Amino acid sequence: MVDHAKPPTPATVAANRAAVSRYAMDDRQDFADNDHGFIAPLPGQVKAADGRVVFDPGWFDYLAEDAPAPDSVHPSLWRQSQLMAKSGLYRIAEHVFQVRNNDIANLTVIEGHTGLVVIDCTGSVESAAQSMSMIREHVSDQPVTAVVYTHTHVDHYGGVKGVVSADDVASGRVPILAPGTIASFDKYAIGENVIAGNAMSRRAGYAFGSLLGKNACGCVTSGIGTTTTSGATVSYLSPTDPITETGTRRELAGLEFEFLYAPDTEAPEEMHIWIPELKALTCAENANHTLHNIQTLRGARTRDARNFARYLDETLQRWGDEAELHYGPHTWPVFGNENITAFLESQRDTYKYIHDQALRLANKGYTPLEAAEIVELPEELGRKWFNRGYHGTLHHDVRAVFTKELGLWDGDPVSLHPHPPVETARRLTDLIGPDAILTEGRRAFDAGDYRWAAQILHALVFAQPDHQEARDLQADAYEQMGYQAEGPQWRGIFLTAAKELREGVAPAAFATASPDSILAMPIDILFDYAAVHLAGDKAATADLRIDFRFTDTDETWTMRVRRGVLNARRGASPDTRLTVSGPKPALVACLLEPAGAERLAEAGEITLVGDETALTTLAGLLDDFDPDFAVVTP
After folding, report:
1. Cys bridge to 73: 78, 206, 518, 564, which one at CB 3.0-4.6 A?
2. 3-state secondary structure 375-410
3. In whole angstroms, what is the distance from residue 429 CA to residue 426 CA?
4. Residues 264-291: pLDDT tens digits?
5. Which candidate, 295, 278, 236, 151, places its Cα nearest to that of 525?
6. What's the gap between Cα 483 and its chain centre?
7. Phi/psi-derived region of residue 554, left when phi > 0, alpha when psi is between -120 and 50, beta in every other case
8. Spatial distance between the Cα atoms of 592 and 580, rounded to a whole number of angstroms
9. φ/ψ of residue 232, rounded to 5
10. Are 594 and 613 in contact (CB under 8 A)?
11. In degrees rounded to 5, what are phi and psi of residue 250?
12. Looking at the DSSP assignment, which residues form a beta bridge with residue 565?
């Protein structure tokens, strides 16, 4: 497809050049720390089994360390992206190794006395396998004796089957440690990434720039990593050793690990890890070389900024005087006790400041957007590179605190029951007139007021989606907003919006609801996943019972559809219309695509006893999700 990107306007050039004076651009310590312990570059492209390239470090060659920031990229983001483009295998301390930036997240290996402990597995099997091949070539051929998930996000467990096999875990040879109970970890890992996965994947495609070209007018890394892999394999294995209390200790590969349980922070289940013999600490994603999200733009549960601060402070109390290495599942390490302490204290205070100032303004009657427009970090916090908005941003984090503490209503009565976007757009367009809207949009664009241009043109685009002149002008405005954005997710959203207004919707690059994740779902969550596919209006008068007998786990569940709701419970129903029996993979296929049940039965994968038309009825009640649904048009 032809790249329709346009160059930065004089207003954008001036804005980005002026931004340079706000930053300590001569501070190069991060570059030295990033290079520390370099062993070997990535061996090349990451490829899928069929030969497709899912990641290529060459995509980011244009981000050379000595390359000046182009006018189409905010200079702070350019600096961060140059750091993220550095990739390879690193020895960051004695017995501690990382493979960085062949995926959006890192893979960390602790070389113990009796084996290897892998902490987080990247987001894909292919990237994890490449990482482990580098470990085998340059570090050790000892067996993996444990895997640790620091939290419930897919970019930390998705590559697990590139590290260990399901048999290794099932046999007990390799435990998987994770925060929270096993049921809770499964619930949040699968539920967050799968049940709402179609919406999340579409939003993530915007936020992470996966539909953009890798160049100075497109994706310049995701800020917290390089980029998501494209079409890679996402796997999942449930934890086997839950960590539910702070102070819990485990001996892994002959080394003692101590854990700090930190739920309801960057993820619903998260933990920090201390290895006393190595004086090595990770705070998972609660401390990074970037401000994190209190509310993700891809979509997830709103987080508690106060808890970020609380658990970082507890970590400082426990191990702050001893830590000599802080490593993370994203970005690069921090070395030396003085630097680690300063880093954690500053990140702690940044999250606490955001939390407290947002609620101070809420208590003074400000709305979320009003508060976000005026909150600024104190200079001592705001000028630290690791507190800049390369993942979260100060603006949307302030608004997220309102959401977490006060809910969806912003306090303005007009926002409580507004007309939907299309109806509002039609009424505004009828009132003002298409020509007047277009004229005002062009005036605002020419004045460099891109934010207002995009906002006023939204009415015309939503009222008349085929109005190409309005689409093109709004795309131009979004594009300049993207070029000026320090936050890469804001950049990705604005530039993808511009691209789709000009070119139409491109196919999704990835999906969080992978087949492996769906198959790994506990049975109750599997029925929850099926339930969100039920079209309530079609099912409002249905009354349907089907029993599903899972022969591999010796469980039977009754599913009932009634009053537009799908419920399921353990045990058989005496009133079932149909019993479907088979192993879990076959029943998953039958439940999610009941129209294919006859084929499964003919192949001997399932057995059907009772009224087989019940599945036909069910099929007629289930909805399909378009992974490429409209975002910038109705």
Report:
1. 78
2. CCCCHHHHCCHHHCCCCCCHHHHHHHHHHHHHCCCC
3. 5
4. 999 999 999 999 999 999 999 999 999 9
5. 236
6. 22
7. left
8. 13
9. -85, 175
10. no
11. -140, 145
12. 562
Q: Residue 607: what are its φ and ψ, rounded to 5°?
A: -120, 145
Count other Cβ atoms within 10 Å, centred on residue 308.
Answer: 28
Across the chain, mean pLDDT equals 96
- The three-state secondary structure class of 154 is helix
Task: For residue range 360-386, list pLDDT tens digits in order.
Answer: 999 999 999 999 999 999 999 999 999
For 189-193, 238-242, 332-336, which range has the lowest pLDDT when averaged over its residues? Answer: 189-193
Burial 206-235 (b: 16+ CB within 10 A, else e): bbbbbbbebbbbbbbbbbbbbbbbbebbbb
Can you tell me the distance from the alpha carbon of 132 to that of 109, in angstroms, rounded to the nearest whole number?
9
| Percentage with pLDDT > 70 across the chain | 99
Please tell me the distance from the alpha carbon of residue 134 to that of residue 152, in angstroms, as a whole number: 26
| Residues in CB range of 11: below 8 A, 6 or more apart | 447, 448, 450, 480
Q: What are the angstrom distances between the C-alpha of 140 and each of 115, 118, 136? A: 9, 13, 5
The pLDDT of 187-191, averaged and rounded, is 86
Q: Do 587 and 548 touch, CB atoms closer than 8 A?
A: yes
**At 182, which amino acid appears?**
I
Q: Report the C-alpha gap between 231 and 72 in whole angstroms.
A: 28
**CA nearest neighbour of 310 among 366, 257, 349, 278:** 349
Report residue 563 CA to chain centroid gap. 35
- CA separation, residue 522 to residues 164, 188, 556 (Å): 21, 11, 13
Query: Is the confidence at residue 153, as pLDDT, over 70?
Result: yes
Half-sphere exposure of 41 (CA within 13 A, CB side): 8
Name the burial class of residue 471, with classes exposed (0-12), middle (13-18) and buried (19+) by CB atoms within 10 angstroms of its CB: buried
In terms of Cβ atoms closer than 10 Å to its own Cβ (0-12, 13-18, 19+), residue 569 is exposed
pLDDT tops 70 at residue 1 = no
Structure tokens at 474: 């709004």
The set of residues, in sequence order, having a beta carbon less than 8 Å from that of 548 and lying 6+ positions away, is 556, 557, 558, 559, 579, 580, 581, 587, 590, 591
Q: What is the pLDDT of residue 512?
A: 64
Considering only CA atoms, which of 405, 391, 397 is closest in space to residue 489?
A: 391
187-201, 341-355, 452-466, 573-587 — which is least confidently predicted? 187-201
Packed helices 10-19 and 75-84: angle between N→C axes, nearest 10 degrees? 70
Give the span between the Cα atoms of 395 and 462, in whole angstroms: 26
Q: Are 232 and 125 in contact (CB under 8 A)?
A: yes
Among the residue ranges 56-70, 106-120, 516-530, 609-623, the one predicted with the least confidence is 516-530
